[in-house]
Amino acid sequence: MVMPKIMQYLAAPQRIMQGLEITEKYIQEQGVTLIANPGAMYNKDIQNVKNYVLGDIDTPFRSLFIPSALYMLEHFEISELLNETEALLSWGSGKVQYLPKQIKLFTDGAMYSQNMVLRDGYIDGHKGTWLMEEKIFEDVFKIYWDAGYQIHIHQNGDAGLDRILDIVDKNNLRNPREDHRTTIVHFGYSAIDQIDRIKQLGLIVSANPYYVTALSDLYSKVGVGYERSQEMVRLGDVARANIPLSLHSDMPMAPASPLALMHAAVNRVNYANKVAGPNQRISALTALMGVTLNAAYTINLEEDYGSISVGKYANFTVLSDSPLEVDPLEIKDIQVKGTIVEGKVFRAP
Which of 96, 160, 195, 263 has the smallest CB count inside 10 Å? Predict the structure, then answer.
């Protein structure tokens, strides 16, 4: 008796496979042609299910994974990290791959739990949380920096951003690198004085603009305060400084919809129907680049993805209207008609 292929993966919960199948359909509906997951969990059984569901040739997008050093430290000593990271390149299958020479690190805690670490603390007196101890963070960063990796770093509080900027500065003085593309991931709270340092040190920003939609009004009243929360995800300052920026969802922390992310970044209208920090809005063109060419640049794949040109994969999305021509408040309402992925047509469900 020949057992179905999926029987090999019974170590992983059946609900993960079912969830991935739902996720696949949802991502296609949003017009996404390529996804990247910085911070993939170190679990071979779960990876096998991802390969089974998302790796098939008929999957309407390609999935790219970046390992999480935080997860890997649960299994390996710091001295083993580099070799074990290289070993993960064999974990993908079909349209699921691990990106070479890229790693995810973490500074402070999550936005939705108010565990980000803030320079001036919280108005109710509670404290944020560091996800990696400072010495471990420094040691791990140095290993990957010296090995020539692009380092993506989870950050939500301005004190967490200080830690990133300080360690990049320290290592770049010790071992200078061109085009290192160290990436600030999420970019929840920052301070205006940090923008110039980001620019001078050569970092790039991958932001979640939906924090503004979901949290700016609430956090203006609870925990953080009005002034700081109006300036959360300060993409206007980033754009004016000509720092490369891209937009991401961190699904399920935000809809995995490029149009919804563009809408959030361009309008900054929150759940109270107020514009939070109008000076931090960005243009529709900047937002469009943030989910296309700059998104590819963020994962060092702009030579293959992100725009339609000779030699790149024929990936694009067919929309009912141009997000550059509609009223900015209507961007999220544009319909996805279908996608072309590596030359193959996928019509909207």
Answer: 195
